[in-house]
Design goal:
The complex is a heterotrimer. Chain B has a domain at 4-40. Chain B is globular. By secondary structure, chain B is mostly beta strands. Chain B has no helices and 3 strands. Chain C is an alpha+beta fold. Chain C has one domain (12-79). A 4-stranded antiparallel beta sheet of chain C has the order 1-2-3-4, with no helix packed on it. The chains are: A alpha/beta, B mainly beta, C alpha+beta. Chain A binds chain C through residues 631, 633-634, 636-637, 640, 643-644, 696, 704-711, 720-725, 752, 754, 756-757, 788-790, 793-799, 822, 825-826, 828-834, and chain C through 12-13, 17-26, 28, 43-44, 53-57, 59, 61-70.
């Protein structure tokens, strides 16, 4: 928008037109405006990174050089890993952006994407083959990359793991047809032991002292005149402790480098006294944390940013599990309400900047991840609200500040997920609703009592720990506690579930990747009744889930020795205490889950087959098989019959809903048969990110009427776009038939609401009434898009004008113009539910 | 031979002047910032495009 | 089927199938292999309807109450 038009239009006028992004721009402080516009947008568009965004070679070079220099060193592997980590932190370029009050970034410069070449050689190959993101001069840097790629070939984590995996499972998994990602301890979603780290009792220096004590005790033990197994194993623990110390000390040193830079700027360059003061405050914060526990809100945020930065130096993080209002809330209260050292407006600036610092984080990702997470780098779903360990309302003033800041900075990532419970105050719910009404697509709403019970049911977390849960990725709860926290959720336990029904028709042969992936179930035309057909479905489900889970289990067992995480271990109570790597299954309770992408197609397809083939006998199975083989080409009338004349999920129709429940029952039963190395269960969790688009060209035609190429449903337990014809209550009733405690780990529900209908106080009351029904029916999740058709179509037509329109894709939000046309159309065609 | 310690961008460590930081102002298309990288005082700066002789 | 843009004629299946965003409708998007234009196609009739441009809505409005308020307004205006 032209600056003059922006200046001449009032905030109220923009809000009336629901152009929230312009209203936000006028409403936010000049500092936030500068910092918000300073972000280099790093989410991939169409699988490609935006012009100007470049792969950061610095960490790659530092890592490789250090690895080379350590090749002949006598250090154990875990110590070498820690030394490489420390070398990167000690030597990387750091920067401080003008107007910033918080510092720390994963890459070396603001426009760069961090690349750690020691993790996966297949990722390294993608760096080499993506010339658009290679920094200038391309020829010279391509040679640098080639050297790095060559060095790590055969040495990366993945290369070390590959030979010790089951090769058949691995090939099926890497075909990309049934799962995505690879099972690596340094590539996925790491929760943190926030109860150890973020409760003000200790920080790095205090942990170092704890480790020193442990080392002293161990040293004494191994030198007593005795020999036994405990002593034999103690040397490994000593190595782990040493590695942890190296990481923590490096963490303190890099913070001091930031402090020093802030002082250099203040003393040598900055002329504005106010900014000088801010820089000195940054310096003081970085001298304090992460060495010691924070004292102020700024220090608390700074501490958190450093931890995230370091964790992303050690590993590729696809998520950002945290609960910032809970852990930073006491500092907000102290600074704003008690000591009054910060005004609410100053605090809001810090909160907004904290969101911005997260929004700019990016690590180079493989193409499948870029396509699956269109427009964002990872799913930073931040947990808000909820209850404390005693079950009391944990919402605080910072919860509200986060909601307000989100509306000011309007970043698509991080997003929030709000833990609703019956005691949440109305003023908090209003703030939550305002974010949704402003079209952010977040917070998603989570049912705290249901999910706490769920965490206890599936993984046996004690209630006090279950109550502290955070989102480990988009959806799955995980307590950030000593034994409860899961150090890595390996993303490849993500099942492309539409393949279950597809393989029933192909006897497990995958025509897209041209290999036998599923079980060799009998020819589908030989099935005499629906029960035989369903039995084949169960067999395919078990086969796919097992392939994915086996590889994760194997990787988890091998991780402590082959791919240790010394930094993550150093901030985990169980590792500091035991001397074992934090991935070691023996010291964790387990919190595994199978993400079930493209799930609802199964219920709709099974219902269509049951009704039209087995009951009404309108079509033979052979006819259906042929139509699917031909991708419904030439069978349009028949295809529409399968869409329109078979019951569809989301309409409160028991015919199809009972099939959904039966499928979930089978999965829940099997979830308790398959176990993780901690001995715990593998429940399923239906949700999609934008896997429904990624898999559009990987999943063949299905009996629900979908053709190869069409987007799959938008995921979780969301009905197919336009297929939920009986209104929002019917959707809730269908979803409410599922037992959200015992039938799976969580169930994503996308709903689209009308911004016109939900305007004003009346709109809020309509939404509250809807939410009461949602809560009463016991659903664990719901999230909303509230942008109308005309705005979205206008954004398609004139994307430059609508750069800031945000939509909820699935478990995350994205700027509408950054997602593919197919995804855009898929979102527009979702049913707009009328409430009331 | 020009070395880092002769450069305006070089800020030595108080406790170890043989080491220091190369601090530079950068204005990119989206933001302005100061960046810092550890260097040695005696590092060869002859081919450094950012070298500015300390007066 | 005939391409509305370049006049290229070929059986429906030779126009590359891209996707249909409304599974319960018979409008799809296909690509002409001659001029590479995206076309909205009526799958039942086997007819190309129009080219697909930015902001085009070949499936019409989304299901549900989208636009209800405007429709109500129009009705009110008409009745007044």
């Amino acid at each position: 928008m032209a600056q003059a038009a922006l200046k001449n239009t009032s905030i109220e006028e923009f809000e009336k037109k629901q152009e929230w992004w312009w209203a936000a721009e006028k409403r936010r402080s000049s500092r936030l405006d500068y910092l918000r516009k300073a972000i280099w947008k790093k989410g991939a568009i169409g699988g490609l990174y935006a012009p100007g965004v470049k792969t950061d070679l610095e960490q790659a070079v530092l890592t490789t050089n250090m690895a080379r220099s350590l090749e002949n060193a006598p250090d154990p592997y875990v110590v070498k890993s820690a030394k490489i980590f420390a070398h990167v932190l000690d030597n990387k370029t750091i920067f401080i952006t003008d107007h910033a009050q918080l510092v720390g970034y994963t890459g070396s410069l603001p426009h760069t994407m961090n690349w750690n070449p020691s993790i996966a050689s297949i990722l390294n190959a993608e760096v080499f083959n993506d010339p658009t993101s290679i920094p200038d001069p391309v020829d010279k840097n391509q040679a640098v990359i080639q050297d790095i790629v060559g060095y790590w070939a055969g040495k990366s984590d993945l290369d070390k793991m590959m030979p010790v995996f089951d090769m058949e499972d691995m090939m099926k998994m890497l075909s990309g047809s049934i799962g995505w990602g690879v099972p690596l301890a340094r590539g996925g979603y790491s929760n943190k032991d926030y109860e150890y780290l973020m409760t003000g009792k200790r920080a790095f220096q205090e942990i170092l002292e704890e480790i020193d004590k442990k080392i002293d005790e161990a040293d004494e033990l191994v030198h007593t005149p005795v020999a036994n197994k405990e002593i034999a194993l103690m040397y490994d623990k000593l190595n782990n402790w040493e590695a942890m110390k190296i990481c923590l000390e490096a963490g303190i040193r890099i913070a001091k480098r930031y402090a020093r830079l802030a002082r250099i700027i203040a003393e040598n360059f900055e002329e504005d006294p106010k900014r000088k003061e801010e820089l000195l405050k940054i310096a003081a914060a970085c001298e304090r944390v992460p060495a010691h526990p924070p004292r102020t809100l700024q220090e608390s945020f700074q501490y958190d940013i450093f931890i995230q930065m370091m964790s992303r130096t050690e590993a590729i993080e696809g998520a950002w599990p945290c609960r910032p209002d809970y852990y930073h809330g006491p500092y907000y209260d102290k600074d704003v309400n008690i000591d009054k050292t910060l005004t609410p407006e100053e605090a809001l600036d810090l909160v907004g900047e904290f969101l911005i610092r997260a929004a700019e984080v990016c690590q180079f990702k493989p193409k499948f991840a870029r396509e699956g997470l269109q427009g964002i780098d990872g799913t930073w779903v931040w947990t808000m609200g909820g209850v404390d360990a005693n079950g009391r309302d944990a919402c605080n003033d910072l919860t509200i500040a986060f909601m307000q800041a989100a509306r000011l900075v309007r970043v698509a990532n991080p997003t929030f997920a709000f833990r609703w419970h019956p005691h949440v105050q109305d003023k908090v719910m209003r703030e939550v609703f305002e974010c949704i009404r402003h079209g952010l697509g977040y917070p998603s709403i989570r049912h705290d009592p249901i999910l706490i019970a769920n965490a206890m049911h599936w993984h046996g977390h004690p209630i006090e720990e279950a109550r502290l849960w955070v989102h480990q990725a988009c959806m799955s709860p995980n307590p950030p506690t000593k034994h409860g926290y899961q150090p890595m959720r390996m993303a490849n336990a993500t099942a492309n579930c539409a393949k279950i029904i597809e393989y029933v028709f192909t006897s497990g042969f995958d025509k897209i990747v041209n290999m036998q992936v599923g079980a060799e179930t009998p020819d589908v035309t030989t099935f005499k009744d629906f029960e035989e057909f369903f039995a084949a479905w169960v067999t395919q489900m078990k086969t796919i889930f097992s392939i994915l889970v086996r590889s994760v289990n194997r990787a988890r067992v091998l991780a402590p020795t082959l791919t240790p995480r010394p930094f993550l271990s150093a901030i985990s109570e169980r590792s500091v205490e035991s001397g074992l790597d934090t991935l070691d299954p023996s010291i964790a309770r387990g919190n595994a889950w199978i993400t079930a992408f493209t799930w609802v197609e199964n219920a709709d397809s099974l219902a269509a087959v049951k009704k039209l083939v087995f009951e009404e006998k309108k079509y033979t199975m052979a006819e259906l098989k042929e139509a699917l083989d031909k991708n419904w080409e030439g069978y349009e009338e028949m295809r529409l019959d399968f869409v329109k004349n078979a019951p569809k999920w989301g309409n409160d129709d028991d015919y199809v809903d009972s099939i959904m429940l039966r499928c979930l029952d089978e999965c829940a039963k099997f979830s308790k048969e398959i176990k993780c190395p901690c001995g715990n269960n593998w429940p399923i969790l239906p949700e999609n990110v934008s896997g429904n688009i990624h898999y559009a060209n990987i999943v063949g035609a299905l009996p629900n009427g979908r053709r190869l190429g069409d987007a799959l449903y938008d995921g979780g337990i969301s009905p197919g776009p336009g297929l939920d014809k009986n209104g929002p209550t019917a959707v809730l009733k269908s979803c409410g038939k599922i037992d959200h405690i015992t039938q799976g780990r969580a169930f994503l529900l996308n709903q689209r609401l009308s911004p016109t209908q939900l305007a004003g106080e009346k709109g809020y009351q309509l939404w509250r009434a809807y939410m009461r029904t949602w809560a009463d029916l016991g659903l664990d999740h719901v999230q909303f898009n509230m942008v109308d058709d005309s705005t979205l179509r206008a954004a398609q037509k004139d994307p430059e004008k609508y750069q800031e329109v945000i939509v909820r894709v699935a478990g995350y939000s994205a700027h509408f113009v950054d997602i593919s046309r197919k995804t855009q159309d898929n979102i527009i065609q979702r049913t707009v539910q009328g409430l009331g | 031979m020009a070395t880092c310690k002769e450069c305006k961008n070089f800020f030595p460590l108080t406790d170890n002047p043989a080491k220091g930081d190369c601090v530079q102002r950068v204005v990119d298309p989206r933001q302005a910032y100061y960046k810092s990288k550890p260097v040695n005082a005696e590092d060869d700066a002859a081919s450094c495009p950012s070298f500015q002789k300390r007066s | 089927m005939k391409c509305t843009e370049c006049g290229y004629e070929a059986p429906l299946s030779e126009f590359r199938y891209l996707y249909n965003a409304r599974i319960d409708g018979s409008i799809s998007i296909r690509q002409c292999k001659n001029c590479e234009q995206w076309l909205a196609v009526d799958e039942l009739k086997g007819v190309a309807l129009e080219k697909v441009t930015g902001g085009a809505a070949p499936w019409g409005k989304s299901a549900g109450i989208e636009g209800l308020a405007e429709d109500v307004k129009k009705k009110k205006r008409r009745s007044a």
